[in-house]
Write a structure and sequence with these properties.
The protein is mostly helical. The chain has a single domain (about 35-305), classed as ABC transporter involved in vitamin B12 uptake, BtuC. The chain is built from 14 helices and 2 strands; from the N terminus they run αααααααββααααααα. It has helices at about 1-5, 10-20, 25, 35-60, 70-85, 90-110, 115-135, 165-185, 190-200, 200-205, 210-235, 245-260, 265-280, 290-300; strands spanning about 155, 160. The radius of gyration is 20 Å and the shape is globular. The model is unreliable at about 1-10 and about 310-315 (pLDDT under 50).
Length: about 325
C-alpha cells in the first residue's frame, strides 16, 4: 500500500537517492574501490564545470574553447592563496573563482560583439595566454612545469583528505551548483539569455541589453569552472600546466554537447559518460584518439541533441 501511494517515479527517486548517498560504501566492496571512488569524484567536479559552460553555450549560445584557462585560474589561485595566507581552502576556492569572474568580465566586454567563430578564436587565445603564464610565471609562483601541491580541502578544520570524504563534499557542491543554475535559467536573466541565443538582433530589438547579459553568462560560467578547478586541485593534491591545455577546453565542450546543451541535467549525463569513456579508452594507448574521434562522430550524427533528449518509442 505504501509503495502504491508513493508511485513509481517517487520510488525510483528514493532508490536513486539512497544509492547516491551510500555509493562510496558500495564501491569500497570492489577490489579497486578507492580508484572507483576517485573516478566518481572526478565526475562530480566536471559536472560543476560543465554546468557552468552550459550557461554560456547552451543558454546564451556563446561558444568558448578557452575555459581551461578559468579552470587553471581556480586551481592555481586557490592553491597559491591558501599557501601564502593560510586561509581555508574553501574560502580560497571562492576567492579565486571571484577573480576568474573579474577576468571573464574583462574578456567579455570587448568580445561580446564578436561573431560565433571569431569569439571561439578569442577564447582559444585566452586559454593559451593562461597556459603560457602558468608554464613560465614570473618568479615561478605557479611552480611552472614542476607543478604545485595544493593542500586537502577543509572546512572549519575538518579535512576532506580521503576520496570517500571528498565524495560527500563534492556531492553537496554539485547539488548547490545545479540548484543555482536552475534558479538562473528560470529567472528573467535566463529568459534573456535564451532570447539572445535564438536571435541576437531580435533580443536587442525587444530592449534586452545584449552585452550586459552576455557578460553575465561569461562571468557565471567562469565562476563555475574556476570553482571546479579549485576543488579539483585540492582533491588531486598536484596541478601542472599539462592539465590545463586546449584539449581540456574541448573535453568540457564535448561533455556539454554529449549530455545535451541548454538543459539542467545534460551536464550530469555528459560529464559522467565522457569521464567513463575516457577511462575505458586509456588502455588503447596509441588508438585512444582514433576511437575517441569515431565515438564523437557517432554522437554528432545519431544523437545531435544529446543523451538527455533521447526519446524511446513505446511498443504498442
Amino acid at each position: 500500500m505504501m509503495l502504491e501511494k508513493l508511485g513509481k517515479h517517487k520510488i525510483f527517486k528514493l532508490i536513486l537517492s539512497v544509492v547516491i548517498l551510500v555509493l562510496p560504501l558500495i564501491l569500497s566492496g570492489f577490489r579497486n574501490g578507492n580508484y572507483l571512488t576517485l573516478l566518481v569524484c572526478f565526475m562530480l567536479v566536471y559536472i560543476v564545470a560543465v554546468s557552468g559552460l552550459d550557461i554560456l553555450f547552451g543558454y546564451c549560445g556563446q561558444i568558448s574553447l578557452g575555459h581551461a584557462g578559468f579552470f587553471a585560474i581556480g586551481a592555481y589561485g586557490s592553491a597559491i592563496l591558501q599557501t601564502s595566507t593560510g586561509l581555508s581552502p574553501l574560502l580560497t576556492s571562492v576567492l579565486s573563482s571571484v577573480a576568474a569572474m573579474g577576468v571573464a568580465a574583462f574578456i567579455a566586454f570587448p568580445a561580446a560583439k564578436l561573431k560565433f567563430h571569431f569569439l571561439s578564436l578569442a577564447t582559444v587565445a585566452f586559454g593559451e595566454i593562461i597556459y603560457s603564464f602558468i608554464s613560465a610565471s614570473p618568479g615561478g609562483i605557479t611552480g611552472n612545469f614542476v607543478g604545485y601541491f595544493p593542500k586537502p580541502m577543509s572546512i572549519f578544520g575538518y579535512k576532506f583528505d580521503t576520496f570517500f570524504k571528498f565524495y560527500y563534499f563534492a556531492l553537496v557542491i554539485v547539488a548547490l551548483a545545479l540548484i543555482i543554475k536552475y534558479r538562473i535559467v528560470k529567472s528573467k536573466t535566463g529568459r534573456a539569455l535564451e532570447a539572445i541565443r535564438e536571435n541576437t538582433f531580435a533580443a536587442n530589438g525587444m530592449g534586452i541589453n545584449v552585452r550586459k547579459y552576455k557578460m553575465i553568462a561569461f562571468c557565471a560560467s567562469a565562476f563555475y569552472v574556476a570553482f571546479s578547478g579549485a576543488i579539483y586541485g585540492h582533491l588531486v593534491g598536484y596541478i601542472s600546466p599539462g592539465l590545463f591545455t586546449f584539449d581540456q577546453s574541448v573535453i568540457f565542450l564535448t561533455m556539454v554537447l554529449f549530455g545535451g546543451s541548454g538543459t539542467i541535467f545534460g551536464a550530469v549525463l555528459g560529464a559522467s559518460a565522457i569521464q567513463i569513456m575516457n577511462e575505458l579508452l586509456r588502455n588503447l594507448e596509441q588508438y585512444y584518439l582514433l576511437f575517441y574521434g569515431i565515438f564523437l562522430l557517432i554522437v554528432i550524427l545519431f544523437m545531435p541533441n544529446g543523451l538527455v533528449r533521447i526519446k524511446f518509442k513505446r511498443r504498442r
